[in-house]
Amino acid sequence: MAQQDWQERTRQxxxxxQLPTDPRWVDVALMSLEDILVDHAYCEQKAATSCISLIIxxxxxxxxxxxxxxxxxxxWGHFERVMEKLKARGFRxxxxxx
Length: 98
Ligand SMILES: [Fe+2]
Prior knowledge:
This protein has 98 residues and is mainly alpha-helical. 74% of the residues lie in helices and 0% in strands. Bound molecules: fe (ii) ion.
């Protein structure tokens, strides 16, 4: 029950999802966990590097740097965590999928 409450609060307050996640998603994800983790790592990398690019391209706007620098750190932290998950399972990052 507590787990279900936490999931519902997360769905409503943090993710603003309109519908609950289909529990069958877990089974599908487990069928290709390596692909999902690798894709996730690249998503985190893109989030961090996109913020860095915005900071550099809009260097005349200090507000951009102020807002996005913490986001770079946060997203890079996510990248590190996903890389730890990959490593723990004996997977490697591999090339980005296009
Ligand atoms: Fe992230």
